[in-house]
Design a protein that fits this description.
heterodimer; A: 175 residues; alpha+beta; 26% helix; B: six-stranded parallel sheet; 23 helices
């Protein structure tokens, strides 16, 4: 599994170009998240792809060839902070509710909705942590789940910022 | 100045230096055609939109500038797809302008509506829909910049009919391209550069693989200095032909599936390969597991996505070929490498002199005769536009190009039907050039409707049909790999000379060797286009041949027949 970050133009069709490229390279995307940045014209993507380092290099270099992709970087080998957010609706009656609450404390999950026979739990963290919570919730009955997919950021002073928005000097026409 | 979107488009194209547009009108592009009629632009009416894209492509390849094709929405746009993909695979700067239904109708399955930007996304360098008149000028300027910068490629601009009809302010000074600010990656670091220099100066058996990128970057001079400094033997890719003179003793000829035997053997024996502006296509490497096992590799290439894609390299110099070579040249040590050149000469053997004209005349007419005679008669100075198949390979083997942009051919996509329209485009780019179409009887029948375009435009393009009554290259594969089961390759054709006559073009049919030269001579002297139907040996094959997927040194060699062996076994 490889993790890439891309800064892209925030406009229609760009997501299609990015995903279409992965399709063409026969790379399966495990998760792809897009969100705005401080600059409303630029969006940030975190792409988690089923491929090896060579495939990630091809994806990265090919992504950067797209006019609307400002930067693409494979950050799999760097020191990373990764987060996934999940909302999990789990069956809960009067008997099981206290047990569930205890479990959630261990995983630092929050109950964000309570109904007579179910709860909605919000949990964020690494993929492993959320998978771990799911594992223990499963016996109680997981009714529904929504996950965001991973977002990732390199740690410390290793910055990945969109290029300054000045216009690139016009490339000279050849011949 | 307030203009309609259609007028803005024409003004913008004129400002960009466009003179000729290859296109076909229709409902959704009619406002533009109305404006075209009032502009200084010359419109070439094609007979099929595929022809328009190939013409724009041929124009681009012959001139080094951008070629422009135009079509209406729907079927007009979809007919362009093959031509766009052809330009994409061969890095050719083509801008396609298509009309689109009105923006209010987008997505409604309106008459002749098709999502052409969706369709062409993977086969264009970039594409865009314009639905406001005020965006047309900037977008078209951006399209030209994208098409002909970096690694060139086709760009499609889809303009809605209402955008063509609406009015907007046009001011050239205020519509400069505003492309997204992309991160500039450093091309390569000093360590990479030093490693390349070390490899170049210490190699015992180096060999250059010269590609299309040399021509695209205009690196011919820097490349020649580089070659002569290191006294490097040079092998050409198909699209690289012309980037380095064929008459230079260091030019070995074409590599790959139908490359010269000594070239492929030299690649396999080399201790250093220097790839310049080429991408290690499967047609030049053969089986990657056995490809140039003993060679270190240096890759000079503008497209970072090509580095280590097919062949793992030891030093990658990412950048414009000319800039990289100009940086390398001062560091090159003068070398002679006599042992290596002696070894190549030995591999080349007697076949170095491949003058097939000096062979006894068996009475048969071979394609190689025709091509070789054409080469001699045109002093090797014609622009030859070839189609795809056997004749294409024979042209590459027997017509020796000394100048860049004189062989125009569809390499990457291998598009049959390319030659005739691409030659028309080339003629518009180089009106004074002697332009020859070399085409098979199969490919010619795919786009022969463009004969009418030649007549309507009153241009002179000579056409040599290498007619063997088969889809020859496919027949050759059937002969070698499918036990001579010729399924769907025998081909009925019209009487091409009579066909030409029906268009008002002079047509000839040649069946004897002795008639080849006089007919070529007469065709060159005739003021209008001439079509010559050369009836050649039906079951001749292109040799040598590396079967698909085989190792580069495992070539099928020419059996004994009246033609010269291309090389002796090393």
């Amino acid at each position: 599994m490889q993790t890439l970050v891309a800064y892209v133009e925030n406009k229609p069709g760009v997501l299609n170009r990015v995903s279409s490229l992965a399709r063409r390279l026969a790379i399966n995307i495990d998760s792809l998240t897009v969100g705005p940045t401080e600059n409303e014209e630029i969006a940030r993507m975190t792409i988690v792809a089923h491929t090896d380092a060579k495939g990630a290099h091809r994806l990265e270099a090919s992504l950067e060839k797209l006019v609307d992709v400002l930067l693409a970087e494979n950050i799999s080998e760097r020191s990373l902070l990764e987060r996934d957010l999940a909302l999990i609706k789990v069956a809960a009656d009067q008997q099981s509710r206290p047990h569930l609450m205890d479990l959630l404390k261990v995983f630092r999950g929050r109950v964000v909705d309570v109904a007579p026979d179910s709860l909605i739990v919000e949990v964020s963290g690494t993929v492993d942590k959320i998978d771990g919570l799911l594992e223990v919730l499963r016996p109680y009955g997981v009714l529904e789940m929504a996950r965001t997919g991973r977002i990732a950021m390199t740690r410390g002073g290793d910055l990945l910022q969109p290029p300054a928005s000045e216009v690139e000097p016009a490339a000279a026409t050849k011949n | 100045m307030k203009l309609t979107g259609a007028e803005i488009l024409c003004e913008t194209l004129e400002h960009l230096g466009v003179k000729d547009i290859f296109g076909y009108p229709g409902g959704a592009i009619l406002p533009v055609y109305d404006a075209l009629g009032k502009s200084k632009l010359h419109h070439v009416l094609v007979r099929h939109e595929q022809g328009a894209t190939h013409m724009a492509d041929g124009y681009a390849r012959a001139s080094g500038g951008v070629g422009v094709a135009m079509a209406t929405s729907g079927p007009g746009a979809t007919n362009m797809v093959t031509g766009i993909a052809t330009a994409m695979l061969d890095s050719s700067p083509v801008v396609c302008i298509t009309g689109q239904v009105g923006s209010k109708l987008l997505g409604s399955d309106a008459f002749q509506e098709v999502d052409i930007t969706g369709i062409t996304m993977p086969i264009t360098k970039h594409n865009v829909v314009v639905s406001r008149a005020e965006d047309i000028a900037r977008t078209v300027r951006e399209a030209f910049q994208i098409a002909n910068s970096g690694r060139p490629g086709p760009v499609l601009v889809d303009i809605t009919k209402d955008a063509q009809q609406a009015s907007a302010e046009f001011d050239w000074g205020k519509c400069a391209p505003k492309l997204p600010a992309k991160r500039k990656r450093p091309s390569y670091d000093q360590a990479e550069f030093d490693r390349a220099i070390e490899l170049l100066n210490s190699a015992k058996r180096p060999l250059i693989l010269a590609g299309h990128g040399i021509m695209i970057s205009g690196a011919m001079k820097a490349f020649s200095e580089f070659v002569h400094a290191g006294h490097f033997p040079v092998a050409m890719t198909l699209l690289g032909i012309g980037a380095f003179p064929a008459n230079d003793p260091l030019n070995l000829g074409m590599m790959g599936m139908h490359g010269e035997a000594w070239v492929n053997h030299a690649i396999q024996e080399a201790d250093l390969l220097i790839a310049v502006g080429m991408r290690f296509d499967d047609r030049v490497t053969g089986d990657l597991r056995t490809y140039a096992k003993s060679a270190k590799k240096i890759h000079i290439e503008i497209d970072r996505a090509e580095i280590n894609k097919n062949v793992k390299v030891d030093a990658a110099l990412v950048g414009d070929a000319r800039e990289v070579l100009e940086q390398l040249n001062p560091h090159m040590e003068k070398k002679e490498r006599p042992d290596w050149h002696a070894r190549i000469k030995e591999m080349k053997g007697d076949s170095a002199v491949r003058d097939i004209q000096s062979l006894p005349d068996s009475g048969h007419l071979y394609a190689a005769h025709v091509i070789n005679d054409l080469w001699k008669e045109t002093n090797g100075e014609a622009i030859v536009v070839t189609d795809v198949g056997q004749h294409q390979m024979w042209e590459a083997q027997y017509y020796h190009h000394n100048k860049p942009r004189t062989l125009i051919t569809s390499g990457g996509l291998g598009t049959m039907g390319f030659a005739l329209p691409a030659a028309i485009g080339s003629k518009f780019a180089k009106p004074n050039a002697d332009v020859w179409v070399v085409v098979g009887d199969g490919g010619f029948q795919m786009t022969m409707c463009e004969l009418a375009t030649i007549v309507q435009e009153k241009i002179k393009v000579n056409i040599a049909i290498i007619n063997n009554g088969y889809l020859g290259m496919v027949r050759q594969w059937q002969e070698f790999f499918y036990d001579k089961r010729y399924v769907a390759t025998p081909l009925v054709a019209p009487d091409f000379a009579a066909l030409a006559n029906s268009f008002g073009i002079r047509g000839e049919r040649i069946t004897a060797r002795a008639d080849v030269v006089p007919t070529i001579r007469a065709a060159r002297e005739y003021k209008e286009s001439v079509l010559i139907d050369f009836r050649v040996e039906q079951e001749d094959s292109v040799y040598p041949m590396v079967p698909a997927g085989a190792s580069l040194h495992e070539m099928i060699r020419r059996p004994n027949n009246p033609l010269v062996e291309t090389a002796t076994e090393p």
